[in-house]
């Protein structure tokens, strides 16, 4: 079953890497390739989320939850994997709801920023997964240079979580107010 998880995680990672590239092309260019990227992006993102769900389920089935929550590296791997899924879910919803207009004006920069943040997160998650499988990468060296020991727990201060929640509520209120006008 461990091999199944290792195999399954590569599908959402590859799809997310391609989705990031397509988002950049669709948002920052025009013409045939931009239009083709816009049309391919939503189905690709939906497939990536289905692959991510399968990878998460297989990962939770492979190792007991007690082992997962006891290891700092595994907690970080799970946490960052969930954040990756959340970012790409948000990207999927914005493109689904916005259609072609999601790639115009200031809205396109939201897509670009989300795609870039998502790609950094899935790269870190993959690096931690590689460590857990016994195959560290150069990304872990880069993380070490940035001051993060991948073997220690990533702590998020309470004020950060409160700020994220308040920003989310603010965005919802602005969206709701804008929709009513």
Please explain how this structure is put together:
The chain has 181 residues and is mainly alpha-helical. It has one domain. It is 81% helix and 0% strand. The protein contains eight helices and no strands. Helix 2 runs antiparallel to helix 6 and helix 3 runs antiparallel to helix 5. It is globular.
Provide a short characterization of the protein structure.
With 181 residues, the protein is mainly α.
List the helices and strands and how they pair.
Layout: H1 2-8, H2 10-28, H3 32-62, H4 65-70, H5 72-98, H6 107-132, H7 138-145, H8 158-180
Helix pairs in contact: 1-3, 2-3, 2-6, 3-5, 5-6, 6-7
Could you name the key traits of this structure?
single chain, 181 residues, mainly alpha, globular
Order of helices and strands: HHHHHHHH
Residue-averaged pLDDT? 84
The geometry reads as globular
Low-confidence stretches: none
The N- and C-terminal alpha carbons lie at a distance of 53 Å
